[in-house]
Structures are given as structure tokens and as C-alpha cells.
Batch of 2 targets.
Target 1
Amino acid sequence: KVADLDDEFAELVLGEYSENFDLISADKLSNLHFRILKSIFNLRILPFYKIRVSGSSLVLAESHDILHILLELELLRQWYKDDLCALAFKVLHDKCRGPLVFVRVYSGLLKPQSAVYNINKSCTERMSRLLLPFADQQIEIPSLMPGNIALTVGLKQSATGDTIVSSKASAVAAACRAGRDARGEKRSTSDVESLLLAGVEIPDPVFFCTIEPPSMAKQQDLDNALSCLQREDPSLKVKLDPDTGQTILCGMGELHIEIIHDRIKREYGIETYLGPLQIAYRETILNAAQATDILDKTVGDKRHSVTAELEVRPRSGERAMTKPVIEYAASVIEALPRELQGAVENGITNSCIQGKGMEVGMLLVLRLISSQSINSELRILLPLMNLEITVSEDHLSAALADLAQRRGSIQEIQSRQDNRVVVATVPLAEMMGYSTVLRSLTSGSATFTLELASYQALNSQEQSALLQRRMGLV
């Protein structure tokens, strides 16, 4: 039936691959789907998608993903009608023109010298120019139609993954239409409250180190450079250590931090010094605990008295996350104003990130989390990574032997053309310097990818050894 829709694919099925359809390569199947869907939906550009499966199941999996994206785009067009809806998916910094934001228009028309509203940042910005990029050259254009990509000049706040519309009123109107559809189709209204386009999913950083300028005179220049790089790369996090005053650079891996270090030197002309690379461990509790605290304080002429009761419980059976899930008792949620809910949730989230025993200020909830009144045994969590190695048959045994020494757990070994793909999980602490070792073992022919999978609790012996190393006792 699929061959009836495309003549080129029909020739492959009837000719070269008539005996075994599973031999059809992934590239040919991808091109087939692109041609068929392009003819059906008349789209100029389809979103990129990643092939994660092989064999005959590729057709079904790929069709499901693409059709799901197309359905979402069609719903967006219905909700926004002829109003602008675009996605900012990349940011570059030009020394002369400032930040250049790559946008793709999904509905409506984008014109220069027009004001646009950023839903993610809740702010209005004015775009001065529209440029069509051709390699290292840009041509100014008068407008941008749906399905096209261009560079915008003048957007000071927009970052990677932000949704851009014509105005706040347009976003509210689209949300109202989506809400009506949600009630008619049994869809969740919380999912369509703010109609954001799917941006980039950014996992938590797993590596961090200190970064210092050559002198305090260069500190402001370094802060500006890091601010620009964070806007270009959402996976890069920068924070200030409140105890030492040092700038902490958080990234997704050794190579990621090395590239950031090189870009600061090459693009901004700042020589920086990196501290030793550290792993971002997490803490959790092993059992539930409760605490009650009373705040009685006079502010001006008014006396404020608040009693708060807090219970913390470990989350089991779910992927470990930095942000806690906050629930209110039924008697509290009715009486607590929405603006105070934001302060409570802020306090709990910040205290969980900083850890137990930190000095976290005067907010009652912060005092509750950081006080010793919540007595629960703590357990340190080690980042567990999904590892995928693409290696030739000749070097497969060497790569597997090295993986076993790193406490890796092999999930499966797939075939991809003439290579083997090893899928495994491995503790991040064992992956320091792995890129150099793998290149040596395979004569530079193998490649690998790492992705955060979850956090694994250390046993008491490993936890004690880690704490002793951190305190300098070992």
C-alpha cells in the first residue's frame, strides 16, 4: 500500500529489495516519508526527528512521531488562525548587530519593524530587521511566510526554545480557542493554558567546575561573555557560590566545558582558568519526615503569626529530578492566596537545591526545610548515564572489556551497517577521560554519546568514602 503512494519506493520494493524488505536503509525510508507527507500536507519544511529504531518497525515508529507533530502544528494553526506564531530555536551573537535569533514561523506573517510578544519571558520586544542566511552572508527580506526560517535582529530577551506571537492579546485569544477545544475533546486545559511550542528539552547539568578571570578587572567582561553563551546554549548553567564568591560553570560533559572555555578565549579574548572538574551529585531522603514551625513577628504596626506544617517524602519509581513535587493539604489550598503559593514553592525549591543545613534566609518554609527539626537519613545519589558507543567489529571486544572495568551494564548490542552499537548504562564517576581512552582503544574510529538517565543511590560504604574524599581526609 505504501508503494502505491510513491513510484520511487515502488521500484525499490519490486526490484532490488523484493526478497527482503528489512534490507531497505533508514535513509531511503526517511526520504519516502518526507515525500509522502510533503505531498499530503503541502509543508515546505518538516521538524527534524531522530531515528532510534531499526528494521521494519522503523516505518511505524517514524510515522507515529511525524504525524503527532503534524497534528500539533495543525491545531496551532487553528488556534492562532492568521496571527503570528513562531519558535526561536537558535541564538548567535554578532559584534556589530548584537544577538541574532533564528526563528521559524508556523502561522501568520513576520515583518521587520514590528513588535512581538515572547510568551516564555512575558515581555514585548521590537524586531528591527529580517535576514535570510546563506552560509556566511545574510540578505534582508521584507517578510517571512509560514514554514520558513530567518534571522531576526533586535530581539534582546528571546532565547533558544521561546515561543513568539504577535501580541499578548493574540496569545490569550488562542488559549481561549484551545480551552474550548479542550472542553469539547476531553483534553486537559492545563496543557493548553499557555500554548508553547515544543522547545529543547534540557536535562540537569552533570559536571561543574570553577572558572576565574586572569584579574578582577576582567570579571565584568567574563560575566558578559558567560551571559551571552548561556543565551546561545540553554544546557550551560552559571551560578555564584555564596560561600567563596567563585563563579561555577555547569555543563553536560567534559567536552562541553572545554568548548565553552575555548570559545571564551577565541571569541571574547579572555584568558580564563578552570578548576578541577567535579560531578554534580544529588541528595535524597530515605523515609518520610514531618516538622512544624511558628513564625511570630511584628512588621511595622502589625503582628504576623503563621504556623506551618511540612512533610517531606522520597519519590520512588520515578526519574530523579532536582525540582520537588509540591502538594497542599485541602484545608490550606482554599485559604492560601495564589501570590503566597508562589513564595512557598520558591522557598521549598531553593532549599531543596541548596541542601539541608544551608543558611537560606527568613522565609518560614526555608527555615523549615533547612532546620534540623526534619530528621531523616540522607542518601547521596550518583548520576547514571545512558551510553551509546558506535564501534567497528574489530574493536568491539576492547570496548566491552573497558566498559566492564567502568561498572557499565550492557543493555543490548545492535547492528548498524558495518558497525556495532553498544547501548549501556554506566555511572558518571567512571566516565572521566573516557573520550581519550576510547580513541586509544579503537584507533580513533569509535564514537559515543552520553545522556543523563537517572540518579542511583550509593551504598553506605561508597557514600562514606566519597564524603571523606570531599573533606580531604583521603
Target 2
Amino acid sequence: MAAGKPANMRILIAEDDTALAGFVRKGLEAEHYAVDVSSDGEQARALATELDYDLIVLDLTLPRLDGVSILKQVRSRKPNVAVLILTARGRVEDRVLCLDAGADDYLVKPFSFSELSARIRALLRRNRLPLESVLAVEDLKLDRVERRVTRGSRTIELTSKEFALLEYLMRNAGRRVTRAMIIEHVWNLSFDSTTNLVDVYVAFLRVVFEASLVSAEHLTYREYLKRLPEVTYMCSCKLAPMDVPALLQLDLSIAFPLIDLLLGGEGKGTLEPREVTEIEEQILESVVQIICRELGIAWQALGLEFRFDRRQQAANALRLMPPDDKTLALTFGITMPETRGTLHLAVPAAVSTALLRKMSADWAYRKPRGPAESKEQVKARILNCPFGTELGVMGLRVQAQELVNMERGRLIVFRQSVETAATLLVGEQPLFQALVMRHGRKRAARLISLSPKPKSIGKEPA
């Protein structure tokens, strides 16, 4: 770590030259700063005024909003943040304008990185105020030196992550704290890399989290919802490329231990069911993003992508899909060191039909790359899942007179030849052209070809 630099310092670089910004970012990250980069003036202004930075490196020439305007807004909102102007403008008038507007330092391009680094260290030493050793909010006290938390006369035991989270919230008491701010300061992850957060969680959760597909069945959406507990965590996902919704439900018996693990605990949850708090919801959102990504990896050969949409309360979940529409209901068993539970996923039946169509297009299922066992389980469950099928000849017509004279035992003769192919419908979707056959005393169908693809998923051909 660079000499004289306190830990966990966060710097924003507002620079439209992406190559230069990347060079400065790598140099500062090598000195253990946490660095965010923005090449757009409006975005830089939003980041600088809404999030907490220890120092801002600001270019004067930015698209949409210039550096001087950003500087003035930052100084009015964040009077204590250090601002270093890094620009190609070397005139005395520009220096005076920026310093009078509130800049703390001014460096002209081209520059030496060692000089930039030294100026940053100097500004941070100057602006860094000593933090109180004891934080207090009403009767809640946090001793930063002794690492002890008390409320009144009672001592509260916290994990390291819980302690860091509480310290950050107490330091920002009375202010709006966003999910991004918590992630950046408690987990020390960069603001512009939500994917990095998911990667970190994936690597950790794969050690303590096992999931296996235990059942797959067709249910109406109403039937699926009736099976879910009253107090639970639900969220909606978008399935691409169909752009249709899916509903994911995670047992709280698994949700709370996951939250405890990610906060540095041992993976123990609450005994009594209760609602998820706002902070817990933010953590679970990241967990569900992992689950969506893992589902996409498992089904990547089918071209299906899961995207987290939003948390769903019971009333909104009722309106996510038509209640009488068929869904493919998948149940996953979740195993952790201290507990077990289930995760339920409902996708429209039209999607499962489209999956079957894709798998049968070349009469073979190509395994995606990755752990073979989990993908084979998905394949086996889908292929063994019972689907409603119908076999019939489309477009048959009879005269009204024949319908009037219809009675038991009467023979109706159609104009189509006996060699006319019938249509095999799977899950109410036309899948194959087939000939009606007899196999012993059972009906059978000899498949001839795939049916023409319908114009839209979930609708019968006209």
C-alpha cells in the first residue's frame, strides 16, 4: 500500500479519453485505491453528487456537461470532497477559474503519473478528518477501536461484515444509503461492476450451496401460486429471447441463512418466518441474479437467458401471468451445511414447448459446456416431464346438413385422403406432422416432419 494512504479510499475519474482514464485507473488501483471511471459529464455529475468519494479527478472537457459546471455542483453538494482538475488547458485564466470555483488542485496534461499520485496523497492527507473512535445513534454505540457494539446495557455480537455494515450506516445516519453505496463501502467493490459482485458471490456460494432439480410438472399458474407459502421471497424474471415473465420463489428457510453467510456469519437463519427487510432484500437480489445466471448457463444450449426483473409481493405476483394459463413448474432442492429448503420456478408452458421444439429440431440434445451432471439432470427432468398431446387432422369441413343428421353409429366421410398427415400438438403447440397408426391395440403416430413454426409462441395457427 502506498505510504500515507488510509485504506478504503474511493476515487472518481471523470475523463472522456478512455485510454488515459484506463491508464490512470490501473495506476491508482495498483496503489490500492478503489476507482470508478466516467466518460460522460452528466453521469459523472450524478456519481459525484449522489455517492461518497474521497477525491475526484476531473477533466474540463466532457460530453453533455463540462467540468466547471460539474465542479460547481459538487462543491455545493459535497463541500469536503477533494477535487483535482486534470486537463490540457494550461492558461492562467483556466487555473484561476477552477480554483475560484472550488478546485483543490490543478494539473496540466501531459503529466507524470508519479506527480499525479503524489498530489492525490497530499489532498487526501489534507482532507482526511480523524474519525471518532465511538459512534453513537441514540442508545446504540459502536466502538471502532474495541470492535464492540452495545445498545443500552446489552452487548450485541456481530460478525465482521455485520460490524462493517452497521458502522457504515451509523456514519451515514439520517442520509439516504443506496444498495450500490453499501456494496462499495462494505464489500469494497467497484460501483460500475455489478457483474464483479455476482462473480464474487458465485465463487463463494458454490462452496456452501448445492441445488438439484427434483421435480418438473405442468400446473396452471393459479395452482402453482397456491402451493407457495404465505410468507416467502418471490421475484419475477424475464426470459429471453421470448420476452416472457417467470416467477421465482425462494424458501425463507434458505434465504435467511444465505444472508447470514454473505454477512460473514455461519449460515444460520431465523426460526420464525418473518418479512424480509430492505437491506436483506438488496442482498437477496444479488443472490437471485446468481441463480438466474446459473439457470442460463445450465440451459445455454437451448438459447434461453434468465434476467432478474424485480421483487414481487403476493398481490402483484397474481397479475404476472393469466391464472388459468399452463406453466412448467420446476422445483429445486437447496442444500446448505445447516439447513435445507426449496426454490420454485414457474415458466409459461409455451416456453417449455419451444424448448422441446428446439431440442427435437435435430433429434438430439447437445450438452452445453460446464458441469455435466447438473445439465444432465435438467435434461432428464425436462425429457421425462409429461406433456399433454393431441393428434388431429386440421381443416376438416362437413356440411351443415350432415351435422343436423348426426347420430350415434353414423359414418361421416371426409374428403381428405387416409394418407393425409395429422398434426401432433404438444402442450397445445403444433410440433410434428404424423400419420395415425395402430400399434397392437394402442393408438400410435408415425412422425413425418416438423410442423411449420407458428407465427407467435402460445397461439394456435389460424
